[in-house]
Amino acid sequence: MPSILNDDLVVTMIRPASDDHVIRMSVHGDTVAAVGGQYAPRFLLSDDGLAFRAGRGPFAMPGGSLSGVMLREDDLWVCGHRGFLGRSTDRGRTWQRVDAGTAVHLWALAEDDAGNVWVSGDDGYLAVSTDGLTFRPVDAACTGKVTGSPLGILVPGDGRLSVCAVESSARGRASHRIRRLEVAPGAEFNHATVTPAGTLLVIGEGGAVYRSADGGARFERVRVPTELMLTAVDCFSDGRVVVVGAQGLILVSRDDGRSFTRLDQYVSADTFWHCARYGEAMLVCGSEGFVLRLAAPGTAKPASTAPPPEVRDGVYVTPQLRAMLYPRRGGIATAVRPVPAVEEAWAALRRALWAADLAWMEHRGKRSGIWELAASHDADRRRLGERILDPGPRTGTLAQDAALVSLTLQQYSTFVAFYRERIHERLADFLVASAGLAEAARRCLVGLDDELPYVDVGPFGRLRELLATAGDAAYAEARTVILQTCESEAEHASGHDRRRADLRWATTFMLPLGPQSGEEERRAHDRALKYVGDFGNSPVHACGLAAGDLATLERYRKAGGKVGHEFFAPFPRVYLASLLEAAGSGAAPVLARMKPADPFDDDPFYNGVWCRLLAHLDHDDALEALYRQREAGGRSLTWGTAGLVLAARIDRDRVLRLAERKRDARLAALVERECALSPEPPAAPYDQEDPAVDLVTEPAGYTPPPARHPRILRADAVCHPIGPEAVWREEEAEHAQSQGVHEEAVTWDGVPLTRCDEEQLDAFVAHREKWAIPTTVPDLVLAPRRLHDRLMALGFGDDDRWSLRALPLVLHRHGVSHLPVLLAALEHPQSPETALEAAQPFGDVSIVPAVSRAFAGRKHKVLARSWILRHPRHAAAGALALRAGGQEGGEASRVLRYLDAQGHRPVILEFAGAMGVAEEIVRLLEEDPLAAPKAKRPVLPAFAAARGLPPLVAADGSAVPSGEVTELLVRLAFSNADEVHPGVLAARARYTPASRAALVWALLQAWLADGAPPKAAWCMQAVGFLGDDECARKLTALARRWPGEGAGARAQAALDALRNIGTDAALVHLDLLAEKSRFPAFKAAAKERIHAVAYARGLSADELADRLVPSLGLDEDGADVLDTGSRSFRVVFDHTLMPVLREETGAVLAELPRPGRTDDKALAKAAKAKLTALRKDARSSASLHLARMERAMCAGRRIPAGVFTDRFARHPWMTHLARRLVWGAFDGGELRATFRVAEDSTLADAGDELFTLPERSSVGILHPLEFPGGALPAWSEIFADYEILQPFPQLGRATYTPDEEERGGDPIARLHGRKVPYPALRGLESRGWVRWYDASVQMAKPIGPRVRAVLYTDPGWHASDTVDSVEPQTVRGIGLRGAGTFGELSPVAFSELVYDLHTLPGE
Q1: Helices 889-901, 918-926: crossing angle, 10 deg rounding
Q2: Which secondary-structure segment (H or E) carries 1131?
Q3: Where are the domains of the chain?
Q4: 293 in helix, strand or coil?
Q5: Burial class of 1170 by CB neighbour count within 10 A (0 to 12, 13 to 18, 19+)
Q6: Residues 6 or more apart from 1040 whose CB is under 8 A from it?
Q7: Per the database record, which ranges form the DUF4132 domain (predicted)?
Q8: Distance CA 1191, CA 1327 (A)
């Protein structure tokens, strides 16, 4: 609707509001090109500056919007989201993407006088192209939109304006000429122009307008009546200047920019983004999708003598209202397009589907949705895809057509997200043309198998049109079918409340109340109204508004609370418009109170729709509501006045009467001026023809999914190639077996792969081969082994992280034959952590490239290091092969240096010698990296001066010069935990252990005293490289407390230092930290490192712990003697592994007696100190060893006979533990004998006869349930006779056997309701329980592969809770995850599970 200001300019809306933005325009001759969009690009063309049509936008754009456009003859450029830059040489029929060299949002394009193309964007981006193919950046700090001008390209920036041009050098090469004009420091500019008089104008944020009449030598600020953002400026041919900006702002200057007045337009209150001169008019575009035309009044048509609109029940029936209506039978007539022939309808539907698929692929970077249907594992989906690909219309069955409907109604992650309205309209046409109106409605209801779009109605909108204009007989037939189908489908949708509701909404929408409706329609409407509620929180749908009457509106209003955007949906049709038809002017009092609420109370679009509806009601309440908006001022002034102007165009006198009542002469004058001009043309749905749909005549070609074919690294250059191997640790195997995928993760025609017969399996693989579909991990989990070779030949797809969790299961089942799937996962950038974890048991040179990349980084270095230590021979061979092939030399060399630092030089040189490169590799390992050309020599901190540290002593006893010490310190500073300078490695042998340990410990203390600066953190690792056992002990004491002092990173660095010291004593301390630290993250880090050491030695963590038990300085018999002069005491150990004293008489003492007169005081003091130290050392780890051995008994862990003899029966300290237990000798899994360790460390059987342990047997601590018949009482009697106390319950251990009720139920029913303190629950962790993270944290016990018992307690706790914040937990029961019933557990597993819980204390 136009408006006038001082008989100077008329503002006319030439493109109505839409749900998109129009951001920029370009004019060339009579043609206008406009671009914008919101979630997808929008491209418009006009040949007369009045009527716009949708053009075929660039499909290659990755979503988002277009923001810039430049038109010159047939050459068309656009730019926008994510650095997109596109060019068309045929006015938009075809497009070519041009590389802009950036991913920032591009805002504007411009052409200079020489024809060069300039583009600007975010982050100061500015570039120019002289050939239309390549763009070169220009350093001009652009903050806005570039513009061509007689002076050159105008580039707005922060506080300045740059004028840019391209000029050629003497050699013919293009260069940039930039003239920087200082405008106003601190200002941010968006646009600039040169007026016909040659004046420079720059506009920007906060109402900034600056003017220069001397070509930019001096600028002055122009005062304007706003502080809003200004976005664009352009000039009429007569010199008038137009500036546009936020909140519908239009400023006009008639004096070459010296002063501006505001144009009071009443079309839009949203942001105007651009203005462009078109002949003698000015076009303005903005956020609501409007295009406005500013022109002199003389160019507007005089008022016509059109007849007044029809008034129906107090509603003015204008063309604009008809365009907003969903028609009713017997209601206001609207134009309804006839149904095309079936062939035409099918072709139109296919084009829309293809266009949507192409947009899905190119805008979202997805694969073709249609071809995915055709290549699906499901027969119904394949048939649907084949149908869409078939050019001939197929008359489908009910199920087939319903499947087509269901496809178009999918809401998420679907290609039909594009052109959805076109697809729904054309789908309805095809179904009606092929099956008839009644059957089309039935198919759409059956196909509504999920839910309606949030505010739209899908194909039901077109069906309602056709039902409204159908003959009585056809309508009656369709109504019967619709009602019957709704009832039957609603019954099948039991439990799916959303679908049942949407079926009711779709039914009442197609059969609305109205002049010709009956009881059937009323009942259908009432059934739907049961679902009315708050939008977003109930299964209500806005389409019910267009099906009912005023009572319906009142019910929605009462249930909804506030007026949201749903009441003014969808667009361009509006449900409320159809309700006005039914309710008449009686709706005015209700509608007048329906101003959009927060957050839409200031939204121009929804407020504009509301005001347009009010303007069509012949009721004072409607006019009063509009007037209140006008009087409110601000943005409300715009849409309130626009509504009043529209009301005046419909019926001038009623608005004049309102103006008279309000004594508002300005409103009366405005009405008179508006009504003197011709009314705007009838509104119609915009952009009905969409070349993006109808110019697509063929679907995209099929492209197979991307497949990874892993690269196999050949080590043939190594004369004796090393083959792959797999060595699984017990816990790794258990973890692998605990993984899996759901049975229905892979199906063929709806049948899980595990249940398919041979014919189905062969069809499945043949289908995958036909479509070149790559293999995934679930395929290999579920398919039989005979199919794996064919599947793996297809390559491997990108598994998601959940599917990759089953990779260890595949590898454990099939071993090295399935290394290709592991190698493919290692190459996948999204899965390195999961793949590196799965790779740990496997040694293969092809794994080395991925490991070397990970080792060179930080994120996955730990896993890479673990693999290298575990497979040093494969790591060495693979790294050498990489170097030999000239691939990843730097990363491979790093691996070789690390292996050398870990003592694997012989392995490296073995392979290097076979390759004939031994000398080269020795030079690599020994070369000084500090001597490299670009090496940065570390600067030592002041505290690391050699003169302030203990002296170094050479291995030959000579003194070491201070310069050599300084050089060693520099090399230490250059090193880190994984990359050690060769000179540091050599220092281990060059200097005495004591002197180098003293040096690095003093260095560490100096670093700590200086505040432990991070740049000098190498001092910590220096202790690891050159420290000794005493350093390890002292460092452990520090590391134990650091996490509690906020020094977690320092504490973890200490763990690496302990690992690098590497002695048994250092590893004992590392193991203690892994078991006893009270800081979870630190404890986990220590465990990770001790596990890595164990794996490197081919052991489990428990097996390593068996071998790291200290001897405590005891003699071979496991004892020591303390001498006080006149007396001596033999040190022995009790059942807790703590030292006690035995007198010569045999009496046992807990403490050393006070020295007597005959005792030597010095000897007595030394004896006491020795006992104290021994007790301290024993106390630090005794409880850990006891808990570890009790876990071994419960888990049935077996120990090789040789390890048992060396580390238990004859170990000075552990023999005291071994003597207090009954052991079993096993051959394979079968128990062959039971025995104990006697006082003299020999073995004895139950008859107290000497027992010889077979060399190849294994040994385990027998659980009471494992004793053969009669052996348990016999051994109990022997231990009682010898008065042997056991370190933990074994012979007298309570055991539990499930009764019939407990086998299938809850075995701890008697504990239900017991309140257990939180610390007691956490204490279960020492017995192998772990925290289980569900809705709340619970405790769970792993029992075997994929089986966990979960203890349910109330209320549970959060992972971040502490001892102080968790209330006592009430036991509610126990359940199994991964197993059927408790009766299926092994006897020992069941007994120990119940035993653990019966030890829990209650409050």
Answers
A1: 80
A2: strand 1128-1133
A3: 3-299, 315-548, 564-679, 725-926, 939-1095, 1120-1281, 1300-1398
A4: strand
A5: middle
A6: 1073, 1077
A7: 1146-1329
A8: 7
Q: 164: which strand partners?
A: 153, 178
Q: CB count, 10 Å around CB of 758? A: 9
Residues 6+ apart with CB under 8 A from 1328: 1191, 1194, 1195, 1341, 1342
- What does the angle CA 962 – CA 963 – CA 964 come to, to the nearest 5 degrees? 90
User: With 0-12 CB in 10 A as exposed, 13-18 as middle and 19+ as buried, what is 550?
Assistant: middle
* 1355 prior amide bond cis, ω within 30: yes
CA atoms within 13 A on the CB side of 239: 10
Answer CATH for 3-299 from 3.10.150.10, 3.40.50.2000, 2.130.10.10, 3.40.50.720: 2.130.10.10
CB atoms within 10 A of CB 1164: 21
Mean pLDDT per segment of 10 residues, for the chain of length 1403 residues? Answer: 54 75 94 86 88 75 80 90 90 86 92 91 91 88 87 90 72 70 91 96 96 94 95 95 94 96 86 94 90 76 62 92 93 93 94 88 84 95 94 91 95 85 95 97 94 94 96 97 96 86 97 95 96 92 95 91 89 89 92 93 91 95 96 90 92 94 92 72 43 72 92 66 86 84 93 95 97 96 96 90 88 94 90 91 94 91 90 93 78 92 91 91 90 87 92 94 94 88 92 96 96 94 94 94 92 93 88 84 88 80 84 77 86 90 85 86 89 84 87 92 93 93 94 94 93 94 94 95 94 91 82 89 86 81 83 86 84 84 89 90 75
Beta-carbon contacts of 40 under 8 Å, excluding residues fewer than 6 positions away, are 63, 64, 65, 359, 363, 418
Token pair 């594009």: residue:
418
Does the predicted TM-score (pTM) go above 0.70?
Answer: yes
Cβ neighbors of 1045 (< 8 A, separation 6 or more) are: none
Interhelix angle 1080-1096/1064-1076, rounded to 10 degrees, is 140
Question: Which two structure tokens, joined as six digits, stand for 170?
Answer: 């003497």
The C-alpha torsion from 1106 through 1107 and 1111 to 1116, rounded to 10°, is: 100
Whose tokens are 């509610």? That residue is: 1372
Distance CA 815, CA 726 (A): 7
